From TrEMBL, chain A:
Signal peptide extent: none
Sequence ranges assigned to domain ABC transporter in this UniProt record: 2-229
InterPro entries: AAA+_ATPase, ABC_SmlMolc_Importer, ABC_transporter-like_ATP-bd, ABC_transporter-like_CS, P-loop_NTPase
Protein name as catalogued: Sulfate/thiosulfate import ATP-binding protein cysA
Record bears the keyword Translocase: no
GO MF term (any one): ATP hydrolysis activity
The organism of origin for this protein: Paraglaciecola mesophila KMM 241
Keyword vocabulary terms for this entry: ATP-binding, Nucleotide-binding, Transport
Keyword Repressor: no
Length: 229, 549
């Protein structure tokens, strides 16, 4: 379960006091709002990345563990962006192997060797009928394939939560609809609580929670204007 | 404890990079600081030295003109190649062309185009006669130097423009220009050139500083009476008497003053050029003359042809061909190679040894310098790191030589490696800075989200993506080290011979055939380095692929 409490985003243009967020296993929260309001910045804050041009405060708790003092690599939170950043020096299979936890166990409970890790990654690709791209490099994939491989790679890491920054925005509407539906099913099946930033208000899944940042935004200039009045 | 270790590591890292990047300044300052006792009489002797004024003026003229001609040619070539399919071919061949040693190009041009040179001999032979003696470039003249350096510096400026072009919205500017009715070639000069010129100051200074104090080419193809200033100064610097030492000190001061003059000339030229372009822009001049730039589309072909011709000439000379003998394969022999192989082994091994260690260390220290700046989130200005190529070599090496002598240090390859290090470092920095700084940080962020620690990310993502650029940097650094003459000669005192020092020594005599053997080997070393680097790079995917997904 992912909880974010007392969250306040301060930017040059204004302030956002978010309502407390609670996401159970497999639940999805969609964040919308006008450009420049801090949606992506918020995701990077949850991830533990360094924030520029804004300050954010609040408590992040994942499976009852406070995360605020942990680095990105210690949080166990996955990230999927519009450009999924498949590593160009690794093929698809090795990209997924790179994401598999270092201590992945085989059936005998021992640490997987290289061959076994590659088999695990191949199985993940074959499950979604993408086995044929295993040996491909990022620049040899279509946009839809890249997005799906990106999600498989993110899930291969077994994250306890996933953050998605407009992950399907670069796809054409048809592919976007198909890939996003498939992605949400995967996240639900695997029980990963997720937060997705999106511009597409019309295609928010029915089961998702939704926060429009615009509704919680207080402009700095109007605040100071009100004070003066 | 961990914080203490981290601080200690950081401090050691900064100390190391400051030492290597600061060695050139150390050399220059030391050369000026440890002044021998100088009397007014010696100052007077210095300024009345026979031919000094001519030497200084010739050197200034050459150092000013050759880089500026190269800059204009390079910009015209760049404007013809940048947005067409030939660009990729040019970018791929740029590094190997850049690596061809200056000395090989200069001597190659003389072998080809001097009076009695290969080109004229072959042409005249077609008509059954021999070329007249007055025809062709002088074997030792200012014009030969000017042509050789201008030609050789073009790939360097193209390399700089290629890096600059990635940061400028050139395509948009050209589109705006064309939408306003200007031709593309006019838009290049009216809209792009002023910005590129301003951002090429350091590159111009590097080319000028090089030309000002280049010794090997000046010795071999520079004019004799008066000699170029670098040769005059070198003779003082290697003198033993108190008078010669005084002259060396004063000469060093004058060399640095000349560099100052060149810096002023860079700004003056820039001011005039931009003012002129502004006037043309205000007058909406269509710059029809720029259409002639189309002939520069042949540059890559011509330069590649010249390179091949140079190598072929050296090869033919090394096989026994000369201007007096008929052009027939029957008289070719490998005797010279067999004879010289015995003498060449030690210099060749020294060159390989020194180039290997100084290039690997140069690249490694460049990575440390870039990483330290990334961690401190502040990149120091480029000139801080590029001092080795911005200051005249004769001034800095003079200081190093004084320190080396004062320490009674040995004449070993280790000292030569250290003396090459600032140069391999500066060129590696020039090559690696762009790819290192522009690497998309999100790759490492994604790796962090998978649980990888900072150094795991650095090694498995950043370093791996930088491998193709690192190979290029290694090849360039290797070539730079192979071509070093002044530091090898002055710190090695002739006891550590390399292919380059041997080549210059032999070329100073009249043995054109043996010189060709050494020139060929000197030119072959960078080519081999680039060949290996490109074969390896083809197997790797890196930052270029990251930017072109």
């Amino acid at each position: 379960m992912l909880r974010i409490n007392n969250c306040q985003i301060n930017t040059v243009s204004g302030q956002i006091s978010l309502p407390d967020i609670t996401l159970e296993q497999g639940e999805l929260l969609v964040l919308t709002g006008p450009s420049g309001m801090g949606k992506s910045t918020f995701l990077h804050w949850v991830l533990g990345d360094e924030i520029e041009h804004a300050s954010i405060s609040g408590d992040i708790i994942l499976n009852e563990k406070p995360l605020n003092d942990l680095n990105v690599e210690q949080r166990g939170i996955g990230l999927l962006m519009q450009d999924v950043h498949l590593f160009p020096h690794l093929n698809v299979l090795d990209n997924i192997c790179f994401a598999l936890p270092a201590l992945s166990k085989n059936q005998q409970g021992k640490k997987q060797n290289k061959q076994q890790r590659r088999e695990t990654a191949t199985n993940m690709l074959e499950k979604i009928e993408l086995g044929y791209v295993a040996g491909h490099f990022a620049n040899q994939l279509s946009g839809g394939e890249r997005s799906r491989v990106g999600l498989v790679r993110a899930l291969a890491n077994q994250p306890q939560a996933l953050l998605m920054d407009e992950p399907f925005a670069a796809l054409d509407p048809n592919t976007s609809a198909k890939v996003s539906q498939w992605a949400f099913e995967q996240l639900q099946q695997q029980g990963v609580p997720s937060i997705m930033v999106s511009h597409d208000i019309d295609n928010i899944p029915a089961h998702a929670q939704h926060i429009d940042l615009g509704a919680y935004f207080h402009s700095t200039s109007s605040a100071s204007h009100a004070k003066r009045n | 404890m961990a914080t203490k270790i981290r601080r200690l590591t950081l401090a050691t890292g900064w100390l190391l990079v400051t030492f290597v990047a600061g060695l050139p300044v150390f050399g220059v300052v030391l050369g000026l600081w440890l002044s021998p006792p100088i009397s007014w009489e010696q100052v007077s002797v210095f300024f009345t030295y026979n031919g000094l004024l001519s030497s200084v003026l010739s050197s200034l003229l050459l150092s000013l003109l050759a880089p500026i001609i190269a800059l204009y040619v390079a910009f015209t070539v760049y404007s013809q190649y940048r947005f067409n399919p030939r660009w990729q071919a040019l970018e791929q061949r740029l590094a190997p062309l850049l690596s061809l040693p200056h000395l090989a190009v200069a001597l190659g041009i003389v072998y080809l185009f001097s009076s009695g040179g290969m080109v004229w001999s072959v042409l005249w032979e077609l008509f059954g006669s021999t070329p007249p003696e007055w025809f062709g470039l002088g074997r030792k003249s200012l014009l030969s130097m000017l042509i050789a350096i201008s030609i050789k510096e073009v790939p360097f400026f193209l390399f700089i423009f290629s890096a600059l072009g990635r940061q400028l919205a050139i395509k948009d500017w050209l589109l705006q220009g064309r939408a306003l009715g200007y031709s593309e070639s006019a838009s290049w000069w009216l809209l792009v050139f002023p910005t590129v010129l301003k951002q090429s100051r350091l590159a111009l200074l590097a080319a000028m500083a090089f030309t000002l104090s280049v010794l090997d080419i000046s010795l071999l193809i520079g004019p004799n009476i008066p000699e170029l200033y670098a040769v005059v100064l070198y003779n003082w610097q290697t003198g033993f008497t108190a008078d010669e030492q005084a002259m060396a000190f004063l000469g060093n001061l004058l060399l640095l003053t000349m560099l100052g003059v060149l810096v002023a000339a860079i700004y003056t030229h820039e001011w005039f050029a931009i003012k002129r372009i502004r006037t043309l822009a205000v007058m909406a001049n269509p710059l029809k003359i720029t259409r002639l730039a189309r002939i520069f589309t042949a540059w890559l072909g011509l330069f590649s042809l010249l390179t091949l011709a140079i190598l072929l000439t050296f090869l033919l000379w090394s096989l026994g061909w000369n201007t007096q003998s008929p052009f027939s394969a029957a008289s070719w022999s490998t005797t010279l190679w067999q004879d010289e192989w015995f003498f060449m082994q030690t210099p060749l091994l020294n060159s390989l040894n020194i180039a290997f260690f100084s290039s690997v260390l140069g690249v490694a220290i460049t990575l440390i310098a870039l990483e330290l700046q990334r961690q401190s989130k502040r990149y120091l200005p480029d000139y801080v790191w590029l001092l080795a190529i911005l200051l005249p070599q004769l001034s800095m090496v003079y200081g190093w030589q004084i320190a080396h002598t004062d320490m009674s240090a040995s004449y070993s390859t280790a000292w030569i490696v250290l003396s090459h290090l600032p140069f391999t470092f500066a060129y590696s920095y020039l090559v690696l800075r762009g790819p290192f700084q522009s690497l998309d940080r999100h790759y490492e962020l994604v790796a962090a989200s998978f649980g990888y620690s900072y150094w795991q990310r650095w090694w498995q993502v950043r370093f791996m993506l930088l491998r193709p650029a690192l190979l290029s940097a290694l090849a360039i650094a290797f070539s730079v080290s192979v071509a070093q003459y002044i530091p090898t000669l002055m710190l090695g005192a002739g006891r550590v011979s390399t292919i380059t020092t041997e080549a210059v020594a032999i070329a100073s005599g009249n043995e054109q055939s043996i010189t060709a053997v050494y020139m060929l080997v000197q030119a072959a070393l960078p080519f081999i380095a680039f060949f290996i680097a490109s074969v390896l790079a083809q197997r790797l995917r890196g930052s270029f692929d990251a930017a072109h997904q």
